[in-house]
Design a protein that fits this description.
The chain has about 140 residues and is of the alpha+beta class. It has 5 helices and 7 strands, in the order βαββββαβαβαα. About 35% of the residues lie in helices and about 25% in strands.
Length: about 140
């Protein structure tokens, strides 16, 4: 089963627009997809969760990650399921550029970068993940 990286480029909310502006990217959110389930940490859903999302809506770019073991994604989900959204992490890491790491809370790209085994997962943005894996960003 191939893992995929889903990158949200839809209009969304004012928050989505602010994230795109701040990160200078067309993307404001990211998910890792295993089978039909999307895994991430979501502001709208209050933190780490898995759910089915219509990725064919025109609001998403999807990149296959054939080298990624799906067990890494499902294991991190099992370890972090229900953890809250990382507002403080997001503010300190992405806005203030100050080291801060609260592993009890996650923002989307931090969670995805951790699942992908990337160095310093707290610095990654959806656009950086797209660049790393060959997306349109």
């Amino acid at each position: 089963m191939t893992v995929r990286l889903a990158l949200y480029k839809g209009r969304g909310t004012v928050g989505n627009a602010l994230i795109r502006w701040w990160t200078r990217s067309p993307y404001s959110h990211c998910e890792l997809v295993v089978g039909a389930r999307c895994y991430s940490s979501s502001i709208r859903d209050g933190g780490v969760r898995a759910k089915v999302i219509d990725l064919d809506s025109g609001n998403w770019d999807v990149i296959d990650l054939p080298h990624v073991n799906p067990i890494a994604i499902t294991q991190l989900f099992a370890d972090t399921r229900g953890a809250g959204y990382g507002w403080l992490d997001l503010l300190t890491q992405q806005v203030l550029r100050t080291p801060f790491d609260d592993r009890s809370r996650w923002y989307c790209s931090e969670w995805c970068a951790t699942a992908l085994g990337l160095h310093r997962p707290e610095i990654w943005t959806p656009g950086m993940l797209a660049d790393q894996y060959g997306g349109a960003a």
